[in-house]
Every structure is written in C-alpha cells, then in structure tokens.
Design goal:
about 400 residues; alpha/beta; Rossmann fold; seven-stranded mixed sheet; about 25% strand; binds S-adenosylmethionine
Length: about 400
Amino acid sequence: MNTHFTLAGIHLQLKRWPTDTDFVNLQAWDAVDELLLSAALKRLASNQLSVSQPVLVLNDQFGALSCLLLARYPQLQLVHVSDSLVSQQACKANLQLNQLPTQQVQWLDSLAPLPDSFALVLMRIPRDHGYLAYQLNLLGAKLQHGDQLLVAARARDIHKNLLLLFHNTLGPTSASLTQRKCRYLQTSLATPRHAPQSDWPKSWPLEQTGLTLVNHANVFSGERLDIGARFFLQHLPTTEPEQRLVDLGCGNGVLGLSALVANPALQVLFSDESAMAVASAKLSVAQSLPALLEQCTFSQDDGLSQLADQSVDWVLCNPPFHQQDTITSHLARQMFHDAWRVLKPGGRLRIVANRHLPYGQQLSALFGGVRCLASQKKFVILESERRK
Ligand SMILES: C[S@@+](CC[C@H](N)C(=O)[O-])C[C@H]1O[C@@H](n2cnc3c(N)ncnc32)[C@H](O)[C@@H]1O
C-alpha cells in the first residue's frame, strides 16, 4: 500500500483503517482530498482567513484532510465531524503516526450540534444524499455572509440534482471544470435563506408486524426494508429466554428488534460503527417495544472490539460490503472473527449473504463448519457454531 502522501511540500505517512487488511493497492487519500486541500491552503495562506477561528472538516475519510491542515498550521482549531467511528479512529491514528497535535481537535459525531462560527468549511460530499441534505441544513443554520465553504467530490457524483440541493439549501451553486476526475462546488450564500428544515429522523412501519423503524439520515436502507434483511426476517433463530444476542452492524435495529418480538426475555446488544445507526436502533426499540428498552444496550463500536470474549449466545449480521466508496469483503471478515471471539462455546453466528460472496468458505475456515439454512435467487442464510 502506498502510504506516502505529499502535497504543497508537506510529507505525511497515511494509512487506511483498519490497517491489517488486504487493501494492498489502496491509499488513505484520493484526488478529492488533494483538490480540497490545495484550495484550503490557498485560502489560509492568502490571509483572508484567521487561523484562530475553527476550521470545520466534514466527512474526512481516513484523516488526510485533518492531518495535512494540522501539519501546515499546528495552531489550527480543527473540528472533525464524522458519522463513522472508523473514520474518526483512522484520523486519530494518522495524527499520532505523524506526531501531529491532537489537543485542539474537537471530535464531533454526525448528531452533535456544529460550533457557532468557523473560518472555513471543508466538505467531502458523502455517498448518501439524505445525509448530505441533513449536513447542508446544519451548515445552512450556521453559515454567515463571508464564510468560506469548500466542497468537492468525484466528477461522476456531481449532477443536476445535487447542485439543486445546494442551491435550495444554501444558495446559487456552480461546479468547477473537472480536474483529475473531480470537481468542486462554489456556492454564494443566499441571504436571507429559508429556515432549515430537517425531515430526519424518519419513521416507517415494518409491514405485518406493528413495529416502527426509525432512521437518521445516514442509516443503511433508511426508507424501506433491505431485501437481504427481508429474507433474514423469515429465518431468524429460535432463542431461549434470557440468552444474549448481538445485532452486529445493526443499522436501524431491524434484526435485533424482530428477535426481541419473538423472545421478549432476550438481552440484545445493538452495535454499529455509525453514530446515526446506533441512535436509530435505540429510537426503533423505544418506539416499538419501550417496555424492553432496559434489556437492550447500544454501542458505537468498530466490529465488537468492546465486547468480552465468550460472552454471548447469538450474533446476527447482515454484513456491509463497502467501506465508503470501496467494495470490500474485509469488514465482513473482521465481523466474523469478532463474532467467533465473543460467542460462548455452542453459541452461533447467523448471517444473510449475497450468494455470490465467498462468506461460506470464510465461515467454514474460521468456525470449522457452516450450514446453509435457506437460499433463494439472490441470498443465502448461513450459520456457524463455535465449538469450543
Ligand atoms: C448491510 S448494513 C445492515 C444494517 C441492518 N442490520 C439491516 O439489516 O438493515 C451493514 C451495517 O454495518 C455497519 N458497519 C460497517 N462497518 C462496520 C464496522 N466496522 N463495525 C460495525 N458496524 C459496521 C454499517 O454502518 C451498516 O449499518
């Protein structure tokens, strides 16, 4: 993996996260980071901006934006905003790797209020446009005339609807010409702007169950049931009273919640690396089964890193197949390892998987066996038991 990042005469070592993957050819930064950083360094150098005012960095993937800004301006007050715990951990690790200052970085998750004023905003456009609209609404409430907003994305992700979203939320917006397959946006803040409106979190009924699912903006399958999850719901395990079950990568909590309906004496941990997912799962349980909230715990975690070995009876998982923009199987593999570690002997991992993915072989190698419980055209339900 190339870890040597150089820009504007500054050399850094940057790693993706987690570091022990087979991402041999992938870097921890891309041309979008480079475009944003070049523009930001120009603005900061031109003395138009005061480095004593915070710089807001939204959706920094592995810390390239934050690390380079702090390498150039070690006194900078930087506010790092991310929904992803993994991105936050990557940024912290890369700051440490390059011996960069961390004490003046404020770490905010996606649900935290933004600071009242800032000198500059750097934003990578997130994959999910509901989440983008949510972030633009937050920014719209804070940005003032003269504030500087730098936004960039891959050229293929910038289109008419996206410009319209910026236009409607912040003001007239145009896109630059394409440079190295990326473009940045220029927005003139309209004054006055419409009062920001957020229609998140959204709630919808889970058909034929009486349950309500609640979703914040950046949650997987936020407005309807995922087709893999739908198949999984037909094949949930029969659990014993007071067993402990983990909904790993819980999203809005649909799997754990449904397991609780079948067995109201179950103890359930809802776990996800996304702040919005964990908050959504909690809202889903609070709305659908408020009396059972006390036997549920909610954790923002990378995999199950905070959970003790051999402590649970069941893990249910609809594994992720991409990290940010990259399709990958390493997250699923990491989750299977974590599941094996936290399961008691005799405990079981049950997953839904796209049938073309090699999860069966991976589970068989790790657990010493795997059973296919059900299959249809697109998905399979697989189960492995921890033997000792
Ligand atoms: C395919 S979605 C499944 C969501 C939900 N369980 C469902 O079935 O609708 C995968 C989930 O894994 C989460 N995830 C991705 N990487 C993770 C990690 N390293 N640790 C924990 N959760 C992760 C994502 O945020 C996402 O909510």
